[in-house]
Amino acid sequence: MEISVKRDVFRLAERFTISRGSRTEARVLTVHLRDGEHRGRGECVPYSRYGETLESVEAQIAGLPEDLTREALQGLLPPGAARNAVDCALWDLEARRTGRRVWELAGLEAPGPEVTAFTLSLDTPARMEAAAAKHAHRPVLKIKLGGEDDMARLEAVRRGAPRARIIVDANEGWDGDLYRALAPHLVRLGVELVEQPLPATDDAMLAEIERVLPVCADEACHDRASLPGLKGKYDFVNIKLDKTGGLTEALALKRQALAEGYGIMVGCMVGSSLAMAPAVLVAQGAAYTDLDGPLLLAEDRKNALKFDNAGVHPPDAALWG
Length: 321
Prior knowledge:
Number of strands: 13
Radius of gyration: 19 Å
Largest sheet: 8 strands, parallel
């Protein structure tokens, strides 16, 4: 089996900002597997928050053996972007070898569309209100916070989209005092869920205070090994394939998290439809789906995922799986 990696760049429709910085393009790695006439693809987004770069992830993939199997991969690479792209490419390759869809191979029910949140980038209150008004028709808005004037931003978004469901993502940008002060106002403004309000390495207070609305672990949750450290602090987990290291672990994490009583959110980095495609399978039946990456792009891959009023649809076989 031949393994190759290609760097791809997708322009964003608008500048995208979170508490850690801004970007105008999505830089991804695409893994291509070739086994005779059959080919498989997977995409990942190396993330500096987890110490990843395009170069480091390429180096991890370059060290893999040619006789690789999906089962062996789980022990060869740690959870993260490199394993994600290769794992998803192996699923795609097996689907094309067998003529069966990935959900059949994984023993899952045939998937359907899932309503997805649409993310509003961190900006001034006035600009976030305008963005909320522009996207007020969307059923769920995810609001990026984590800077000064967050209270003003929340009020502005609610004015702009008075009927939309709202979830908030602070990306570790708050401290305990700020979260404690903001939490009642989140409830007042109808926010349903708050993602990672505190740094993953400094979140102990979440177990000590009354959580007046559900709290979701994002940076604090990568794979099943993360779950013991979340107990008593979080109510939901955000499953992202670039954190779990692929579809294989994402499905296992979902099963175990549900068994332990966590609610499920399925999220993404900013990538193309190829990155979202396997995550749509994980998102089936999740309480929250946040797979809007392609909606933030100015350009996407061929045979892109379909988004409509029903949500994000499962991938066509020409794209993946």
